[in-house]
């Protein structure tokens, strides 16, 4: 089997009676952008800390860049760049001065440190602001500076913990684009932890859905969707100009149609195959004025909800209240931002 750049096997961490991470198994290949997706308290940060050798596992192993993280924390630090959710800088120093300082700490020789720092600032789009004090930077600019800081040691893997927290939508878009570029142009493997479903979906090749210390599922969004929605993978939403008498039975007679849901002028039809042409023909033949036809694709939010429907109810019966709270706050946060 091809060696993965991150290999987690049977990894657990308990704090007293709390299982923060519970028997986690995960492999991430070189060059992937992997999204660790889960709500607050799911165990993402604890997993990251174990991968960096910053906290000792209760059981299991975390290997990164061929190193056992808990046995080799210092070599791991050299190969892995870690950006926490709140990066700290010297506010009175300029971005360039901050980076030069970090470069020296990382052992970059004096005659190279200025060029190296400038190169990194240029690569993260901070060229014009490099002489400004870090204290005057916006949250988005600070995250870029954080990325430059991490890149300075030319890491093989970058771990980003909630990197887009508190950045405005345009800043998020630019930051995600930057991550994608780094991955494509420099082949850096990226592990990104987040609870923002749509952001993760935009940038990650594979995701892991992490809840209550356990990995509920992993795979590409397409694979997860195909697996979860295999009963009726194709959904067509038809909108009519005005409510018509639509016969659900007639629609159910059309080849491949498995489910019909009529709500006033909006009709949702599910099927085994792509049923769009037959559906459109049906409504036109009935003389209905069709104002919209849309094929629904399943994104991470549907996948997440389906996991809740299928797993959470059974797994967390003992903790029903907190699950409800968590579910509400998770989707609440996702929708608000
Ligand atoms: N040092 C600690 N001592 C006791 N409990 C801890 C400690 N660190 C984390 N926990 C608990 O472990 C669980 C997982 O926390 P963790 O920070 O890993 O979650 P997370 O998914 O990163 O969430 P967040 O996005 O809020 O950081 C939480 O219930 C948290 O309270």
TrEMBL record:
PROSITE patterns: ABC_TRANSPORTER_2. Keywords: ATP-binding, Nucleotide-binding, Transport. Residues 6-237 form the ABC transporter domain. Pfam families: ABC_tran. The keyword Mitochondrion does not apply. GO terms for molecular function: ATP binding; ATP hydrolysis activity. Signal peptide: none annotated. InterPro entries: AAA+_ATPase, ABC_transporter-like_ATP-bd, P-loop_NTPase. PANTHER family: ABC TRANSPORTER, ATP-BINDING PROTEIN. Belongs to the ABC transporter superfamily. This is ABC transporter ATP-binding protein. It comes from Chitinophaga sancti.
């Amino acid at each position: 089997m091809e060696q993965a750049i991150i290999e987690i096997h049977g990894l657990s961490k308990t704090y007293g009676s709390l299982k923060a991470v519970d028997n986690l198994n995960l492999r991430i290949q070189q060059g992937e952008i992997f999204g660790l997706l889960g709500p607050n308290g799911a165990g993402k940060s604890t997993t990251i800390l174990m991968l960096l050798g910053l906290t000792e596992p209760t059981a299991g192993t975390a290997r990164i860049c061929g190193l056992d993280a808990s046995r080799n924390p210092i070599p791991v630090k050299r190969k892995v760049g870690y950006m926490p959710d709140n990066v700290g800088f010297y506010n009175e120093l300029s971005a360039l001065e901050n980076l030069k300082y970090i470069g020296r700490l990382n052992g970059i020789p004096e005659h190279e440190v200025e060029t190296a720092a400038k190169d990194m600032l240029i690569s993260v789009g901070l060229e014009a602001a490099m002489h400004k004090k870090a204290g005057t930077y916006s949250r988005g600019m600070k995250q870029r500076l954080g990325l430059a800081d991490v890149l300075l040691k030319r890491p093989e893997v970058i771990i980003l913990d909630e990197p887009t927290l508190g950045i405005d939508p345009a800043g998020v878009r630019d930051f995600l684009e930057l991550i994608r570029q780094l991955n494509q142009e420099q082949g850096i493997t990226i592990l990104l932890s987040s609870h923002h479903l749509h952001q993760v979906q935009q940038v990650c090749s594979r995701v892991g859905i992490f809840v209550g210390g356990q990995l509920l599922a992993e795979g590409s969004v397409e694979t997860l969707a195909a697996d979860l929605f295999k009963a009726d993978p194709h959904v067509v939403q038809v909108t009519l100009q005005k409510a018509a008498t639509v016969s659900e039975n007639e629609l159910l007679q059309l080849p491949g149609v498995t489910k019909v849901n009529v709500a006033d002028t909006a009709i949702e039809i599910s099927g085994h195959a792509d049923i769009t042409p037959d559906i459109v023909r049906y409504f036109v033949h009935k003389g209905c004025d069709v104002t919209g036809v849309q094929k629904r694709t399943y994104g991470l939010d549907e996948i997440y909800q389906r996991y809740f429907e299928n797993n959470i109810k059974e797994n967390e019966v003992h903790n029903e209240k907190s699950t409800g709270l968590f579910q509400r706050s998770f989707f609440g946060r996702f929708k608000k931002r």
